[in-house]
Amino acid sequence: MQAVGADGQEMTVQEVLDWMQKTHGWTVTMLLHGYTVLYDSQEDEETRTRQLAQRLSANLEDAGEPRRQELQLTYVCEGEDAEAEDARPPLLCSLP
């Protein structure tokens, strides 16, 4: 997917989750890049609000990872356990 929002900037985590819901009907409860958690619905409200507002690469930059043009994200959907993430294809996001 092209991870570019309506404003021409890199999508936020919320925009990606909304796209996944609209396009595939998936309610994502956890979104990850490798071992870096971008979103976890089990976190407290303040943490979830911060996660949802961040651009996709913000957490990765905070973790010291180099800026990338493409991210491979894994995810867990509502009603699945964490092992199910291996059964779904990764979501490839192209960044601006």
Describe the 3D structure.
- The protein is α+β, with helices and mostly antiparallel strands and 96 residues long.
- The protein has a single domain (13-94), classed as Roll (Structural Genomics Hypothetical 15.5 Kd Protein In mrcA-pckA Intergenic Region, Chain A), CATH 3.10.290.
- The chain has helices at residues 13-24, 45-53, 58-62, and strands at 28-33, 36-40, 70-77, 91-94.
- Strands 2-1-3-4 form a 4-stranded antiparallel beta sheet.
- Strand 1 and strand 2 (36-40) form a beta hairpin.
Q: CATH homologous superfamily?
A: Ubiquitin-activating enzyme E1, UFD domain
Radius of gyration: 13 Å
Question: How many separate domains?
Answer: 1
By CATH, the architecture is named Roll
The description of the largest β-sheet is: 4 strands, antiparallel
What's the CATH C level?
Alpha Beta
Query: Roughly how many Å apart are the termini?
Result: 11 Å
Low-confidence stretches: none
Mean pLDDT: 87
- How much β-strand is present in the residues? 15-25%
Lateral strand order in the biggest sheet: 2-1-3-4
Q: What level of helicity do the residues show? A: 25-40%
